[in-house]
Amino acid sequence: MTGQITLLVVEDEPQMLRFLRASLQSHGYRVVEAITAEEGMRLATLHQPDIILTDLGLPDFDGLELTRKLREWTDRPILVISARGQEEDKVKALDAGADDYLTKPFGIGELLARIRVALRHTQRTGEAEDPVFELGRWRVDLSKREVRVEGLEVHLTPNEYKLLTTLIRNAGKVLTHRMLLKEVWGASAGAQPHYLRVYMAQLRQKLEEDSARPKHLITEPGVGYRLKLE
Ligand code: CA
């Protein structure tokens, strides 16, 4: 990897901005800062950051609107920072093209992990995908459509398999209910969010050691689901 990774941080709270700046710089990232959405737009054009972090509540227009505007011309990852209780806004931001979100308060470990996942997904575009996905006790061979848990083959229905492979393709990232329904059942199928709950419960039964305490098939309350890697 040549050169530093540049992050644009759009955040109006001085304390939060200080925390982000200090943590990111100490981990080798170059940080560009904006305290309004308008300034964020300008600096995004000027610096072409590798990744953008934006707060949802900003003084001029909000992070959701900023995400929409950025998505008109850039496909760089966007991470949204939100307060607890802003589930609806998080979902809107994700559906508008944000890659992931962090809920305040969050630790530096979580922040760095999300940044790594987001960057990995952009860097992987265009590269040949490994047909075998391994995670803990799981081994999924995408070329053979074969799922094994601790070496034993598990039978999945076509929709369960589609749901699992959608999560695998986006491993580590949150997917909203709407994204998952569209991927698995198609845009026009009129599928309902409760389908997802049912299929996710079935997948957990088949793949998780303890389906009541899933390690990898994680519910993001009010938002969607995530395939957790660690
Ligand atoms: Ca704010």
| Spans where pLDDT lies below 50 across 5 or more residues | none
CATH homologous superfamily annotation of the largest domain: Response regulator
Topology, number of strands: 12
Beta content comes to 15-25%
Number of helices: 8
Mean pLDDT score, rounded?
91
Terminal residue distance: 24 Å
Structural notes for this entry:
The protein has a five-stranded parallel beta sheet, sandwiched between helices. It is globular, with a radius of gyration of 19 Å. It has two domains: 6-126, Response regulator (Rossmann fold), CATH 3.40.50; 132-227, Orthogonal Bundle (Arc Repressor Mutant, subunit A). The longest helix is centred in the middle third of the chain and has 17 residues, at 108-124. The mean pLDDT is 91. The chain starts with 5 loop residues before the first strand and ends with a strand. By secondary structure, the protein is α/β, with parallel strands linked by helices. It is built from eight helices and twelve strands. It has helices at residues 14-26, 37-47, 63-70, 87-95, 108-124, 158-169, 177-185, 193-207, and strands spanning 6-10, 30-34, 51-55, 78-82, 100-103, 132-135, 138-141, 146-149, 152-154, 174-176, 217-220, 224-227. β11 (217-220) and β12 (224-227) form a beta hairpin. The chain binds calcium ion.
